[in-house]
């Protein structure tokens, strides 16, 4: 081929994959026989004026990005008001999730609350139960900005028994990662004065599910936030406008939306969402409770079933990793189903309990790949395989599936969610 | 105001800012919650019975209420209509291949039944039930799960704490039982002899497609 020198130069970058001896194909657009009309002919966007600056007072993505949306899996739940939609991870990059694409989990639909009518109460084992307006909350000293991932406890839950849904949006898309603006919950608890006997708090939402969760006081006083903004603007209604709880590193269910009350007590409340739900049934019939923390996890977002490989030659493997135990320290990637691993390049900011972005630049010669990623956090935890998790938990625990994902990439570039031995 | 008076006022404000919250003291924001307000919102009930209001309800009253307000979703006997939650049955199923996790087979505490019905049911008309009605519905659900006889009347005085499965819950022990997952030196090369594909999502074919007619087999949202 005419561009053989280019190929051999790329061999320097080659990952040394099995089958690397097979001839690599010419990359796309390496040469042209006829002039490209997109270049030699004047295009309409060059000739005519576009919209003025007032056309979109609140901007929206290009119409060519219309497929980058949250999606649902209708058969998962009985009602859309107690259901979930999924973040299109396969179509995103970097580490910050755009507000309009952050996955949504409701238990009583999306409450629509006038912020002037919202109240936030602190009560229970405190010196002085208090009521705050949103105006009061914004006047509280000690405002902070923090980046955290929020992962649903049930993310990847449909995959416990085996490969089921074909795309990382569906297998891993119950997660988002944004900058929150708010005030530490501790400030509100101090304002009311927590009794020395206080050991737990109960957080409660104002929506039609009146969602409640028990949280150890130690966590409440450590890094929980009462937040009213995400990515620089007010919370979206579906994310709890005007106020939500931020519980860094812990399962998404605890991040109470439309937060209206925090009660202090001396024992957990055993509410529905911490007994019937968000408890993890193991093979012996017993169940773990209070499995708050989300363990280290990762997924290759590109290529993946919704984002196939299109060209041989240079390609960029990309993915995200996160851990509720701290910061992502390392991500390893395998292209042969876990036989051999190499360490990926983490690019961009990596905060504790936030999403990290990783890349592996590689040459693809059309061979079949079995892609995996393996996250390690700064506690030394290494993301396990699904089979390793099943050894400890069986297949009925629903929540906390952080097992390694495998994508089978075929010679035509298409990718599929598979299980491997 | 004279210049010096302004300076003193400004200084006082500065002192108030630095001496307040930053020293861990109270900012003085918010106002005391009134007893009526606490009563309206603090409706949670704990396993030890804290939070239960006065009242009572019988299994038979609960059955009548259940048929009116609940059975369209949960079935006449709590068996669940369509895809809606099953509330009764599933005894001894927790180690089976397909566990049925109901109030009787799985839930640890009776208090949660009362609290959740009062808090969030009926779905679409939450917090519409009076204490006696919630007691009656809780009694009926206990009866459907073979926990109390048909003539039982539930009240704060005889409210039971534990349900049959309570003893089978324990606190998160991942750091002990799964400590093998902490490993500073995971295998990097020749980690397995062979790798075989053991399961395919595409064969199951339950992922939403872009087109309803199923002609387009690409998963929804695929990058074109």
From TrEMBL, chain A:
SUPFAM superfamilies found in the cross-reference section: E set domains, Oxidoreductase molybdopterin-binding domain
Highest taxon of the lineage: Bacteria
One GO term of the biological process aspect: sulfur compound metabolic process
InterPro entries registered for this protein in UniProt: Ig_E-set, MoCF_OxRdtse_dimer, Mopterin_OxRdtase_euk, OxRdtase_Mopterin-bd_dom, OxRdtase_Mopterin-bd_sf, Sulfite_DH_SoxC
Pfam families, A to Z: Mo-co_dimer, Oxidored_molyb
GO molecular function: heme binding; molybdenum ion binding; molybdopterin cofactor binding; sulfite dehydrogenase activity; sulfite oxidase activity
Keyword Metal-binding carried by entry: yes
Cofactor annotation: Mo-molybdopterin
Keyword field contains Cytoplasm: no
Signal peptide: 1-32
Domain Oxidoreductase molybdopterin-binding: 109-269
Keyword annotations from UniProtKB, A to Z: Metal-binding, Molybdenum, Oxidoreductase, Signal
Catalytic activity, EC: 1.8.2.1
Domain Moybdenum cofactor oxidoreductase dimerisation: residue ranges: 292-405
Protein name: Sulfite dehydrogenase
Automatic annotation (TrEMBL), chain B:
Gene3D superfamilies xrefs: Cytochrome c-like domain
Region: Disordered, residue numbers: 203-224
Keyword field contains Signal: yes
Signal sequence extent: 1-23
InterPro entries per record: Cyt_c-like_dom, Cyt_c-like_dom_sf, Cytochrome_c-type_DH
Biased composition (Basic and acidic residues): 209-224
Stated name of the protein: Cytochrome c
Organism the protein comes from: Chenggangzhangella methanolivorans
Taxonomic classification: Bacteria, Pseudomonadati, Pseudomonadota, Alphaproteobacteria, Hyphomicrobiales
């Amino acid at each position: 081929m005419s561009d053989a020198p280019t190929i051999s130069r790329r061999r320097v970058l080659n990952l040394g994959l099995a089958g690397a001896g097979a001839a690599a194909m010419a990359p796309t657009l390496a040469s042209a026989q006829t002039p490209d009309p997109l270049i030699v002919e004047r295009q309409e966007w060059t000739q005519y004026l576009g919209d003025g600056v007032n056309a979109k007072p609140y901007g929206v993505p290009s119409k060519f990005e219309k497929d980058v949306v949250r999606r649902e899996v209708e058969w998962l739940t009985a009602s859309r008001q107690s259901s979930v939609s999924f973040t299109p991870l396969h179509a995103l990059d970097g580490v910050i999730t755009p507000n309009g694409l952050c996955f949504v989990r409701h238990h009583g639909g999306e409450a629509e609350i006038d912020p002037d009518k919202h109240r936030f109460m602190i009560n229970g084992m405190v010196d002085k139960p208090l009521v705050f307006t949103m105006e009061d909350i914004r006047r509280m000293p000690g405002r902070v900005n923090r980046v955290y991932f929020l992962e649903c406890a049930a993310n990847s839950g449909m995959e416990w028994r085996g490969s089921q849904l074909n795309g990382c949006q569906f297998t891993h898309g119950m997660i988002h990662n944004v900058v929150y603006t708010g005030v530490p919950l501790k400030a509100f608890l101090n304002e009311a004065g927590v009794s020395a006997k206080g050991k737990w708090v109960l957080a409660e939402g104002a929506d039609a599910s009146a969602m409640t969760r028990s949280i150890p006081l130690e966590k409440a006083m450590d890094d929980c936030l009462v937040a009213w903004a995400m990515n620089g603007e007010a919370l979206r209604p579906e994310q709890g406008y005007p106020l939500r709880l931020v519980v860094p590193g812990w399962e998404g269910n605890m991040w109470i939306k439309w937060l209206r009350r925090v009660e202090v007590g001396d024992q957990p409340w055993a509410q529905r969402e911490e007994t019937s739900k968000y408890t993890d049934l193991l093979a012996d019939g017993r169940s773990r409770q209070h499995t708050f923390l989300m363990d280290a996890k990762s997924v290759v977002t590109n290529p993946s079933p919704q984002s196939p490989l299109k060209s041989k030659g240079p390609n960029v493997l990309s993915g995200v990793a996160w851990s509720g135990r701290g910061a992502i320290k390392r991500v390893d990637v395998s292209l042969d189903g876990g036989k051999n691993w190499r360490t990926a390049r983490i690019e961009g900011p990596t905060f504790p309990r936030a999403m990290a972005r990783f890349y592996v630049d590689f040459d693809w010669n059309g061979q079949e790949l079995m892609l995996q990623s393996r996250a390690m956090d700064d506690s030394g935890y290494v993301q396990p395989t699904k089979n390793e998790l099943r050894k400890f938990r069986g297949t009925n625990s629903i929540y906390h599936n952080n097992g390694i994902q495998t994508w089978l990439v075929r010679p035509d570039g298409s990718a599929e969610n598979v299980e491997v031995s | 105001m004279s210049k010096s008076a302004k300076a003193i006022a400004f200084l006082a404000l500065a002192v108030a800012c630095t001496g307040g919250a930053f020293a861990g003291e109270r900012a003085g924001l918010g106002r005391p919650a009134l007893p009526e307000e606490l009563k309206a919102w603090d409706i949670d009930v704990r396993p030890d019975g804290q939070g239960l209001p006065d009242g009572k309800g019988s299994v038979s009253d609960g059955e009548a209420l259940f048929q009116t307000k609940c059975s369209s979703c949960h079935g006449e006997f709590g068996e669940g209509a369509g895809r809606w939650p099953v509330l009764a049955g599933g005894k001894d199923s927790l180690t089976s291949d397909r566990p049925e996790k109901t109030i009787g087979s799985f839930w640890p505490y009776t208090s949660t039944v009362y609290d959740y019905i009062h808090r969030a049911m009926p779905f679409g008309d939450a917090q519409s039930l009076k204490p006696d009605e919630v007691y009656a519905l809780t009694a009926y659900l206990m009866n459907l799960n073979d926990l109390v006889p048909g003539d039982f009347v539930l009240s704060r005085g005889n409210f039971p704490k534990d349900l049959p499965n309570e003893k089978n819950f324990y606190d998160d022990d991942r750091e002990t039982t799964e400590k093998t997952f902490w490993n500073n030196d995971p295998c990097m090369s020749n980690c397995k002899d062979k790798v075989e594909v053991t399961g395919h999502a595409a064969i199951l074919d339950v992922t939403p497609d872009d087109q309803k007619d199923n002609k387009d087999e690409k998963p929804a949202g695929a990058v074109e």
